[in-house]
UniProtKB/TrEMBL annotation, chain C:
Protein name per its UniProtKB record: Lipid-transfer protein
Molecular function via GO: acyltransferase activity
Domain of life: Bacteria
Annotated organism of origin: Planotetraspora phitsanulokensis
InterPro entries according to UniProt: Thiolase-like
Signal peptide: none
Gene3D superfamilies: 3.40.47.10
Length: 382, 300, 339
């Protein structure tokens, strides 16, 4: 895993449907300047910049690192653009951490953003070439059959997805940056919303947001303030078209978790991890990922959700920030998970701080649940 | 039979229009307006009134003689939307009346805002004057034709055109579909049959050369009921299903038909419904959908 | 830093037209070739470079993953940049010390769309892209600012095309001819040709490199730098980011037998020679360079592959590879390779 690396600054923008008040540069600067302020640094102190986002079709700006170089203080420095589908925010953090772990740099600024309102998410994600032989309608249309299969295999009752939809939105009420804030959110409210892609209801899906998130990462010698130490980093990808691919609990997710736990010395994630920020864009993915990430045995994940274990006051809070279900600037969503995990172990998560959080998981996935990025951060130096 | 009521047109109009004397304060404002500037006047308490009055509205005390340039940009405080403009309105298309607090002013100016629609209006909207051409300005409040939103977004039409070929794998598969056959490819190393046909194995990466003709029957492994319309589906709701063709090791995603959406089941046996041979092309459109065969469901 | 070397390089026979292959069909044989050549079927890390706007659809890298045998699941990442930057990411990953090999690949089919206009989309979306400033036009602005002599440019193109004709992977292009301008001062032949192609490189660290290659091409320096974007705020007569990257990579610390420069326009070679302070005796672009084959998103990686090949085949002792991104050499990556 190389040299020690820590998060010393986190910055986020307010997430909302349309950030009409800012340019693209203004949006990423808002997050970047807050991260620098948190770290007590300026652009001058940064050695390299890594920027991530989902497809360029969202903003119609190709390879935006070129136009954003000076906006992010990167002139005269190395700058890298990462794109690994929905997991990109997580991968961006890992590429940045790698520069420090590899001993190449001491202070790296990582930024991820999406300004979805410049176009339309379904268009940007579902545009495909002619001759395409399959019938997939948006991200929900893609994931709904796999959720159905999970429900069949596990025998989970229908209301589990509703519970997650309520819980994450309740958490969002504590997060000043969260996009969806629905006071009084409850099961009835979720159940009264229409099925979009059955079995997925409207309020069981993530919103479309504009927003950016940034982190300052530092080598051990350059740590200032309250660090979140990186205890493990891992990426895994698997082919989409492979025969017998388990789309409910993909092997790449299991392998990625095993790798990151091994580095962090975790053998029982449910007990040893205090808080998890996991990429749950559709509510049913909470029980599915509980199993995939080893927090519960196969077929048992929904029981943890139902028992309230993943709630803010549960024994293993998942998505105390409100998660992707409450804020989803796609390219940044993974980085937000990683950053929120860091905030928790730094004790700086504010109203949604989980008491005594010492070890946290940040998780992101993308494509057809085939790209995974994860890290474990801790309050203690590894 | 009632007779036509007797009606006549009538107007009260002073020929040529009234001639108003402005006094020093309003005159100064309109003079500045004619020159393309907006000024307010400072009150004794230090507030800036725009448009300027000769007196402090709350107390009636005279204002100072201190004129201050404000704006020209300002912030919409509140507005009313006019869908059908009247003849005398400053604009002949739908627009908003608005209270606009110009930058540097402590009071709001009433004026028209030319916006694309009511949805474009919101409190806090930043606007700037659209001036009449200098030669047409006469020292009149309509020297500003209207206010318009500050530029906060721009339309960036992007259209990239491509010439796309299906690739060797898909072209071969679509030839089969044209002839009413599903072609798969067998990876001899992994002993797996890929559908649609492809030239390399996603698992081991080796080249695939062995073609396999697959039947047009299979089993629904899972599905979604889509309640959002899609141009590729004839109606809403429609079912997009993962169908594992008999003899294949990867499912294909296809439309279900000839069955109500809520009667589709995991494990259901289905068969492709083809377009008539004379309508077939090298396209997936040859398969209209998959329909239940009526065989017993398969245990998954 | 940990010793890391290029131990294998493969590229397609690049074409100036669409061969009817998808991206993943294009990349498959190249991946097979480097696997066979190294005997490796699994790599500690994999990284690729490609571009959605070039492919005409989002997620162009997803189907490529289906063609490289990524099972069991692999540790993998992707840059929406020339694959030379994927190689940089892989080199950094190998510095961690826990993995010893990496697969890097890049691919692009410029034949599908209008490359000149696609490249407009990487410009400032408020002040530049709305002008419709295309790739040849902004390059011509730089050529004009630099003030290159016509005879000098003609000679660069003549030499590149002649070398390209001797390179089985490059296009077969005749000597430059014609008096017309594409965008003055650039003539059509000053512009790299539209090309489809793919390339792959295998990196290995320390003993594994020594074990798998007779004469590994060791990366003794690698660095990249970006500079401000807006053309009117830069000195277009030089490339400060290439200068800085060259210094950081240590180009001047020894003789340079061969330099492979990612010059997509003839005048860029002159700017880059100056930026990297290449001595007159350095052989520049013996492969023909981008002016003889320019499979965008792989071209920069191919420069590294070609520079490494001169060492792998015993022909050179110290070579330099350069890759670029962004308008007018905005972003530059320099690699120094030694026997």
């Amino acid at each position: 895993m190389g040299n020690r690396c820590a998060v010393i600054g986190v910055g986020q923008t307010r997430y909302q449907t349309k950030r009409r008040d800012v340019s693209i540069a203004g949006l990423v600067r808002e997050a970047a300047l807050r991260a620098l302020e948190d770290a007590g640094l300026t652009f001058k102190d940064i050695d390299a910049v890594v920027i991530g986002k989902a497809p360029d079709l969202f903003e119609g700006v190709m390879m935006p690192e070129a136009y954003l170089a000076d906006a992010l203080g990167a002139a005269g420095k190395p700058m890298t653009r990462v794109h690994t589908a929905g997991s990109v925010g997580g991968s961006t953090a890992l590429v940045g951490a790698s520069l420090i772990q590899g001993g190449v740099h001491d202070r790296v600024l990582v930024v991820a953003f999406e300004k979805q309102s410049e176009s339309n998410a379904t268009w940007a994600l579902s545009t495909h070439l002619p001759f395409n032989a399959s019938l997939v309608v948006g991200a929900g249309g893609y994931f709904a059959p796999h959720i159905r299969e999970y429900m069949r295999r596990s025998g989970a009752p229908d209301h589990i997805g509703t519970l997650v939809a309520v819980k994450d939105r309740q958490n969002a009420l504590k997060n000043p940056y969260a996009h969806l804030k629905i006071p009084g959110i409850n099961r009835q409210m979720v159940e009264s919303t229409p099925m979009l892609w059955e079995p997925i209801r409207y309020l069981e899906t993530c919103p479309s947001s504009d927003g950016a998130c940034a982190m300052v990462l530092a080598s051990e010698d350059k740590v200032t303030g309250t660090p979140a130490w990186v205890h493990g980093t891992a990426m895994r990808s698997e082919p989409m078209a492979r025969a017998d691919r388990d789309t409910v609990s993909p092997q790449a997710g299991k392998d990625c978790a095993a790798d990151v736990y091994r580095q962090a010395g975790i053998t029982d994630p449910r007990r040893e991890i205090d808080v998890a920020e996991v990429y749950v864009p559709f509510s049913w993915y909470e029980p599915m990922w509980l199993e995939n990430l080893g927090f519960a045995a196969e077929g048992e994940g929904w029981k943890l959700t139902e028992a309230g274990c993943t709630a803010f006051d549960g024994d293993i809070p998942w998505n105390a920030s409100g998660g992707v279900l409450s804020s989803n600037p796609i390219g940044a969503s993974g980085l937000i998970r990683f950053a929120e995990a860091a905030l928790q172990v730094r004790g700086m998560a504010g109203e949604h701080q989980v008491d005594g959080a010492r070890t946290a998981l940040g998780h992101a996935y993308g494509g057809g649940a085939q790209f995974f990025a994860m890290w474990i951060v801790g309050a203690q130096k590894p | 039979m009632p007779s036509e009521p007797l009606v006549a047109e009538h107007a009260l109009e002073f020929p040529g229009g009234y001639t108003r004397t402005t006094g020093p304060v309003i005159g100064r404002f309109l003079t500045e307006l004619r020159d393309g500037r907006v000024v307010g006047v400072r009150t004794a308490e230090g507030r800036v009134l725009v448009p300027p009055l000769e007196y402090e509205p709350e107390t009636g005390e005279p204002v100072t003689g201190d004129f201050v340039e404000v704006g020209p940009a300002g912030t919409v405080m509140s507005w009313a939307w006019v869908d059908a403009p009247r003849k005398g309105h400053p604009l002949d298309r739908p627009f908003a009346w608005a209270l606009i607090k110009l930058d540097g002013a402590d009071t709001a100016l009433v004026h028209a805002v030319g916006a694309d629609g009511a949805k474009a209006m919101h409190p806090g909207l930043r606007v700037r004057p659209r001036w009449k051409p200098e030669a047409d300005r006469i020292g009149h409040i309509t020297d500003i034709s209207c206010f318009v939103p500050e530029v906060t977004a721009m339309v960036a039409p992007i259209r990239m055109e491509y010439r796309v070929r299906p690739g060797r794998s898909l072209a071969r598969f679509l030839e089969g579909v044209r002839d009413g056959v599903f072609l798969g490819g067998r990876c001899t190393r992994c002993v797996k049959v890929y559908m649609p046909f492809r030239t390399s194995c996603p698992e081991c990466g080796s080249a695939i050369s062995e073609e396999v003709e697959l039947p047009d029957t299979g089993t629904v492994t899972t599905f979604a009921i889509n309640n959002l319309p899609d141009p590729r589906a004839p109606e809403v709701p429609f079912v997009s299903a993962y169908i594992l063709l008999d003899g294949a090791d990867v499912p294909m995603i296809a439309l279900m038909g000839d069955v109500p959406a809520h009667e589709v089941r995991q494990g259901m046996r289905v068969r492709a419904v083809w377009a008539p041979p004379e309508e077939r092309t090298m396209s997936m459109a040859n398969i209209r959908w998959f329909a239940p065969t009526g065989e017993p469901d398969v245990e998954l | 830093m940990r010793e890391v070397a290029v131990i294998a390089f493969a590229q397609t026979q690049h074409t100036d037209h669409d061969e009817g292959l998808t991206d993943f069909e294009l990349i498959h044989p190249v991946i097979q070739e480097v696997k066979e050549r190294t005997g490796l079927s699994r790599f500690g890390f994999t990284c690729s470079g490609s571009c959605d706007y070039l492919a005409g659809a989002p997620f162009s890298f997803v189907s490529a993953l289906d063609s490289i045998g990524a099972w069991p699941p692999i540790s993998e990442s992707h840059v929406e940049m020339d694959a030379a930057w994927a190689l940089y990411e892989a080199w950094v990953r190998l510095q961690h010390g826990d993995v010893d090999s990496a697969l890097v690949y890049g691919f692009g089919k410029s034949s599908m769309g209008d490359l000149r206009e696609i490249m407009t989309l990487q410009l400032d979306p408020y002040y530049l892209a709305p002008l419709g400033l295309d790739q040849v036009s902004f390059a011509a602005l730089q050529a004009s600012a630099y003030g290159a002599g016509r005879a000098e440019l003609d000679e660069i193109v003549r030499r590149s095309r002649a070398d390209g004709r001797n390179n089985p992977h490059a296009l077969d292009l005749g000597d430059p001819a014609g008096e017309e301008f594409e965008v003055a001062p650039l003539r059509p032949y000053d512009v790299a040709p539209i090309t489809d192609g793919a390339a792959a490189i295998v990196l290995a660290a320390g003993d594994l490199a020594r074990e798998l290659a007779e004469r590994p091409a060791w990366i003794t320096g690698i660095a990249h730098r970006i500079e401000p974007h807006y053309l009117g705020m830069r000195d277009l007569t030089r490339s400060p980011s290439a200068e800085a990257a060259g210094r950081a990579a240590g180009v001047g610390k020894g003789p340079v037998d061969v330099a492979e420069l990612h010059a997509q326009f003839s005048h860029e070679e002159l700017i880059l020679r100056q930026a990297l302070e290449l001595p007159a005796e350095t052989v520049v672009n013996p492969s023909g360079g981008a002016l003889a084959a320019n499979p965008v998103m792989a071209t920069g990686l191919i420069r590294i592959g070609e520079a490494a090949s001169r060492i792998l085949d015993g022909g050179a002792g110290r070579t330099v590879a350069h890759a670029t991104s962004g308008p007018c050499l905005q972003h530059n990556l320099v690699t120094v390779l030694e026997a």
